[in-house]
């Protein structure tokens, strides 16, 4: 069943319209999008499943992986991976940002860096003759709970 309009909790109306016109909105897919939209950090599949269970929406792990793959192909979700090895997922339209990662409890949070990274990228391009296509910056340490 193709839908023409959908409004999901935590999503802007533009995001909702994009979802509605992009694909069939299954319960699992819309629930995953809502979880990622409401989060302030990339989530692992396990964390997504935990939130969905608390909401009494319990797709199995395979379904979550399939839905995430579909959302990644449609450029709605992006996959991020830190040195911990686990893949995490966040909405693709969150804008450019970086992360802090607790090395003890593995908690990840979004962080905005105030410095001029664009100027640093230009300097690297000039001095190293290197054309950066993208970059990733994470800070590793202990969160307030683990410190």
Structure characterization notes:
The protein is 39% helix and 16% strand. The chain is of the alpha+beta class. The protein folds into two domains: 1-92, Winged helix-like DNA-binding domain superfamily/Winged helix DNA-binding domain (Arc Repressor Mutant, subunit A, Orthogonal Bundle); 96-147, Ferric-uptake regulator, C-terminal dimerisarion domain (Dna Ligase, domain 1), CATH 3.30.1490. A three-stranded mixed sheet has the order 4-3-5, with no helix packed on it. A two-stranded antiparallel sheet has the order 1-2. Strand 3 (98-102) and strand 4 form a beta hairpin. The longest helix is centred in the middle third of the chain and has 13 residues, at 61-73. The radius of gyration is 17 Å and the shape is globular. Mean pLDDT is 82; it is low at 1-9.
Widest β-sheet, arrangement of strands: 4-3-5
How would a textbook summarize the main sheet?
Answer: 3 strands, mixed
Structural class: alpha+beta
Which whole number gives the mean pLDDT?
A: 82
> How many strands in all?
5
Shape: globular
Compute the gyration radius: what is it? 17 Å
Number of helices: 5
Q: By CATH's scheme, which homologous superfamily of the largest domain applies?
A: Winged helix-like DNA-binding domain superfamily/Winged helix DNA-binding domain
Tell me the CATH topology of the largest domain.
Arc Repressor Mutant, subunit A
Top CATH class of the largest domain: Mainly Alpha
């Amino acid at each position: 069943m193709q839908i023409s309009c959908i409004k999901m909790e935590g999503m802007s109306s533009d995001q909702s319209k994009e979802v509605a016109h992009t694909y069939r909105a299954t319960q699992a897919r819309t629930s995953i999008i809502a979880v990622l939209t409401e989060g302030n950090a990339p989530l692992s599949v396990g964390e997504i499943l935990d939130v969905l269970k608390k909401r009494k929406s319990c797709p199995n792990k395979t379904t979550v992986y399939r839905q995430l793959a579909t959302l990644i192909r449609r450029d709605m979700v992006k996959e991020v991976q830190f040195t911990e090895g686990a893949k995490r997922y966040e909405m693709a339209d969150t804008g450019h940002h970086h992360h802090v990662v607790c090395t003890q409890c593995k908690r990840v949070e979004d962080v905005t860096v105030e410095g001029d990274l664009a100027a640093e990228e230009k300097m690297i391009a000039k001095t190293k003759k290197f054309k950066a296509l993208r970059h990733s910056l994470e800070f590793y340490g202990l969160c307030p709970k683990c410190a």
